[in-house]
Specification:
The chain is of the alpha+beta class. Helix content is about 20%, strand content about 30%. The protein has helices at about 85-100, 105-120, 195-210, 260-265, 280-290, 325-340; strands at about 5, 30-35, 40-50, 65-70, 70-75, 80-85, 130-140, 155-165, 175-180, 215-220, 230, 235-240, 245-250, 275, 295-300, 305-315, 315-320. The strands form two sheets. Strands 9, 10, 11, 12, 13, 14, 15, 16 and 17 form a nine-stranded mixed sheet that branches. Strands 1, 2, 3, 4, 5, 6, 7 and 8 form an eight-stranded mixed sheet that branches. The protein is globular and about 60 Å long.
Length: about 350
Amino acid sequence: MQIRIEPLADESPVVLPDQLGFGRVPTRRILTCRYEAGRGWADAEIGPRQHFVLDPAAQIFHCGQGIFEGTKAYLRPDGRINLFRPDANAARFNRSAERMAMPNFPEADFVTAIETLVALEHAWTPRTDAASLYIRPVMIAAEPTLEVRSSREYIFYIVLTPTGPFFAGGFEPVAVRVEEHHVRAAPGGTGEAKTIGNYAASLYATEAARVAGYQQVLWLDAVERRFVEEAGAMNVAFVYGGKEIVTPALSGSILPGITRDSLLRLAPDLGYAVREARLDIDEVIADIESGRITEVFCMGTAAVVAPIGRIGRHGRDVIVADGRSGPVATRLHRTLTDIQYGRA
């Protein structure tokens, strides 16, 4: 892929704010590429970040054809920058595109686009602990028509943002509330695709949980409302007896997380057994209370590993591991981030 690079008007040194938050600070450049049926992908360019001009009838607003990915660039101790498995993001991006009746974006070009943009914006990579340069590739439908069908025009773009820890407290236990009424995704739906509608559908329950004092929702399956699926926008895992890591099996309504896959590959090398299974919420709560489950944690690109210290259900809280970060989650977090940051 040939990428045209436009000069920036502002070449002043990058100064990052002390408090980065998550996804709030834009870098100066954006990569864009456009698709038209019959022509394919063309016009790849990197230029100053600016607003899009879209027709009010653009199909992203009416049919909701939109997908995205999330990955990061990490500053190594030697000053160079690591990317972590962007090829896996490229493959998942295209699986999402297929599910949403959108065109594939060549995987090699996907990785090249990330590498090129990050190389130009490397000065935005934070130097503080637990911070990184977040990378957000997106595809949206742009054809101006109100017909209910797949679009014939698309925009692919990548934006970057220096970011701190996803949770304000960093690697500290979070509280989740079991959602009994609303569902995130259903069998045969779009749960395993990283599409914008999945996140819109999760917001009502998530905001209600936050008002009640929890950071995330623990989602159950849409059919029986009894099997654990995800924790917020992340995968979830349970540690049995401090030795076995069990995570919900991919069912078609669970996003196949790249952090999830990485940890399941890494854990056996650290001496932990891993297993995928259907996990009944009643049994999970009972196993936490009996001590069979010794830890619970979330896993995803944004937070990497986030211990769960409190689970709310039916108006009461169940405390996990005395509300502290357990040794398995701590070790997994440290080992994976050491790889990502180039320390190991």
